[in-house]
Write a structure and sequence with these properties.
280 residues; alpha/beta; five-stranded mixed beta sheet; four-stranded parallel beta sheet; 10 helices; 11 strands; 41% helix; 18% strand
Length: 280
């Protein structure tokens, strides 16, 4: 048995700052049709699946549209959405452009979202159908991008059209920051924690080594990406390892069991509090 004292990889091993982005791009180049994401929808024949080529295409279109909307390296972009493939497309688009992603908890009221958006100085905030109302209460409508079928603010198709005639270059933020993650505020006001692209690369590299993530693995994603563990383990880390991620359209004990059977899940990264909440 191997006992590890850290998950951030060997200190002697030097990784490029954007190592995880390079790995995702390499998977898309060498195996474009490899399974990346699926949304599990019980009692329906409708399939929503994405390949690694889709990941690069969608995130690239988002990066171009962000650039067309005035976002530049170092600018902060908020994401107030439930877990989904588009959540990951958006954070990747932000990071590829050199922006800073600001995950926002969907459990927070509009007043708290407003405070975090103002504190982080977000240029834009993405919100899906379930969270668009809160985002519009918290932000100026012209700052809110409605993702998918969400109505209000700037529509998704309108947002993407802006990037169709825009040239952009992959970049990094001037100070190396990739994500601004806010604490839950359990013991006081939420505090913003800067996470660098370099730090993410070492965390993801160490996670892949520790869990021995492999391209044939499938990971069930339920924990919100507004926390660093699921963002690293279920989102960015899975793609860097060549694995696939399954999202649930409805979260319930039965939906989790069914997804394990249908999707042949091999990893389920979770915390005890999640089981308490689901049990209630």
């Amino acid at each position: 048995m191997t006992i590890r004292t850290e998950i951030s990889g060997s200190a002697a091993e030097q990784l490029p700052d954007a190592w995880f982005l390079e790995r995702i791009a390499e998977w898309a180049r060498t195996e474009p049709d490899r399974f990346a994401f699926a949304v599990d929808r019980p009692n329906t024949v409708e399939e929503e699946e994405y390949t690694y080529a889709d990941v690069m295409e969608h995130s690239g279109r988002i990066a171009a549209a962000l650039h067309a909307n005035g976002v530049r390296p170092g600018d902060r972009v908020g994401i107030e959405m439930d877990n989904s493939p588009h959540w990951v497309f958006i954070i990747l688009g932000v990071l590829r452009l050199g922006g800073v992603g600001v995950p926002l908890s969907v459990l927070l009221p509009a007043s708290s979202i407003r405070r975090l958006v103002d504190h982080s100085e977000c240029r834009l905030v993405f919100a899906d159908e379930s969270n668009i109302k809160t985002a519009l209460e918290a932000c100026d409508p012209e700052k809110v991008i409605g993702v998918g079928s969400a109505t209000g603010g700037v529509g998704w198709d309108e947002f993407l059209r802006g990037g169709e005639v825009t040239d952009w270059e992959q970049n990094v933020s001037p100070d190396g920051t990739a994500v601004l993650m806010y604490t839950s505020g359990t013991t006081g006001d939420p505090k913003g924690v800067r996470i660098s692209a370099r730090g993410l690369s070492y965390d993801i590299h160490g996670l892949i080594e520790t869990l021995k993530l492999a391209p044939d693995h499938r990971i069930l994603s339920v924990l919100p990406f507004s926390h660093v563990l699921p963002l690293v383990a279920n989102g960015l880390g899975s793609l860097a390892s060549g694995a696939g991620v399954v999202f649930l359209s409805v979260i319930s004990p039965q939906a989790i069991v069914d997804a394990f059977k249908r999707r042949r899940i091999s990893f389920f990264v979770c915390v005890p509090q999640f089981f308490y909440a689901v049990h209630r």
